[in-house]
């Protein structure tokens, strides 16, 4: 059962109540709390982009909720003039799932970091995506534990020197998007904290998507991992490394568009020079392909050393959501068999003890 079934209007794929008040502005979504991140932190850019983007949804602030776990990014709910909850380490997807199931009138967002989401919260993240709960998950990835002062995280590159790995990390890091696509998340995207236009476009698409949406945001930590993504931002470097995705267009990049993505001999994807491979071999991007194999192959083009990094929307497909189905199931059960709490507590078998 969706909010439409309950008599609530639909808005851009979101079963939410649009505001009847005067148009809102970015300042309306700013709380009275002092924003306290380190100077130069990429979180500021994401916060500003979110506050500027939300008015375009035309939703009442009381119909928007931000749930966070533990970490620097998890301060987010304090700075949003909406409902929100700073929850416990790694459990934001679980709490948000309960909220999404019981309140179809809410736009539910999860804000998390690479440590919070992929270490202690890894199991919760995987199952929220697998179930296709109607959540929008923003994964701030700075490849380090910032709040606890610079230990290596599940996305830190192999060999990373940190306080907890003084001789270099031995771990093979997660590729968060490969993980999400492996769980068959229905919306998967990646962007950078400094690309305001792409970030806004992706946030808009995620908000309009019905189902689980994971947006990975490469975000700089100026204190414990400063410059981690500089090669993706510096003129002369970024053109050689960033592979932007645009639906319906051949995937190509480079200062003159001289590189492109083609099918490899073994069936995956690889980077090639367009002049050598030929225009006709370039892959035309389609985020709506049902089979996750294509999106997964795209995710494998991105490398630890950032020599290639694919940005944009990898996957955007439709599948029934867990929360819609759960509400429909409850409604069907109520119609066929009225609720009897005492019978449920007693169960089919009872025992007398003593």
Automatic annotation (TrEMBL):
Q: A GO molecular-function term, please?
A: magnesium ion binding
**A single BP term in Gene Ontology:** cellular respiration
What SUPFAM superfamilies has UniProt attached to this entry? Thiamin diphosphate-binding fold (THDP-binding)
Which parts pass through the membrane?
none
Oxidoreductase recorded as keyword:
yes
Thiamine pyrophosphate enzyme TPP-binding domain span: 70-217
Alphabetical keyword list: Oxidoreductase
Q: What Pfam family does this protein match (any one)?
A: TPP_enzyme_C
Tell whether Cytoplasm is among the UniProt keywords: no
Specify the superkingdom: Bacteria
PANTHER family, from UniProt? 2-OXOGLUTARATE OXIDOREDUCTASE SUBUNIT KORB, 2-OXOGLUTARATE OXIDOREDUCTASE SUBUNIT KORB-RELATED
Q: What is this protein called?
A: 2-oxoglutarate ferredoxin oxidoreductase subunit beta
The organism encoding this protein is: Actinophytocola oryzae
Taxonomic lineage is: Bacteria, Bacillati, Actinomycetota, Actinomycetes, Pseudonocardiales
